[in-house]
Write a structure and sequence with these properties.
mainly alpha; two-stranded antiparallel ribbon; two-stranded parallel ribbon; globular; about 170 residues
Length: about 170
């Protein structure tokens, strides 16, 4: 078990500290599907014996254009690893199979998605701010590069010559 991951599974309500309604943030379908995959990967880090990474890859394959699902799930996994490296506090997440998962989001999950949303909108300053809050410090470059990889695969931003040589453009949510 990873000491940094902390699933929130009971007494979920948006008035609790660190939990809010997803609808307040205007996430698109693609970003919400990223959240579904990420939650399963958060749980896999929290409890490796649950093997929820398998479900994460399956959901990614079902929700993103073939053959990009597995690549997207893999980059999300890498970004979670980089995000975890600098954190000193727990990372709170809502389990994907929780009845409130479609309606609520933790602060940490929101920072994760807002980093991606900001990268997709090419707002690097805002992406950097969310990454600092998420990673709990200035060591955010690898995390940001991994998140940028998702936007490269989807074609939201252009591939840089020296980075992500293996990424392919064009994945979209079904």
């Amino acid at each position: 078990m990873n000491k940094f991951f902390n699933k929130i599974s009971s007494d979920l309500n948006p008035s609790s500290d660190g939990i809010s309604k997803i609808s307040e943030y205007n996430f698109d379908k693609f970003e919400l599907n990223i959240l579904r995959v990420a939650r399963l990967l958060f749980e896999s880090n929290d409890n490796p014996n649950a093997q929820t990474w398998k479900s994460a890859f399956l959901i990614a394959e079902q929700n993103f254009s073939s053959p990009f699902g597995a690549s997207i799930a893999h980059i999300i996994s890498i970004s979670i690893d980089f995000m975890s490296n600098g954190r000193t506090r727990n990372f709170s997440y809502i389990r994907e199979n929780n009845s409130s998962a479609f309606n609520l989001i933790t602060d940490e999950e929101r920072y994760f998605l807002m980093t991606l949303k900001s990268i997709r909108k090419r707002n690097i300053s805002r992406a950097n701010s969310y990454a600092v809050m998420l990673c709990e410090g200035p060591q955010v470059n690898k995390f940001l590069l991994a998140m940028e990889g998702i936007a490269i695969i989807t074609g939201d931003i252009e591939k840089k010559a020296a980075k992500f040589n293996g990424a392919v453009d064009g994945a979209r949510t079904h």
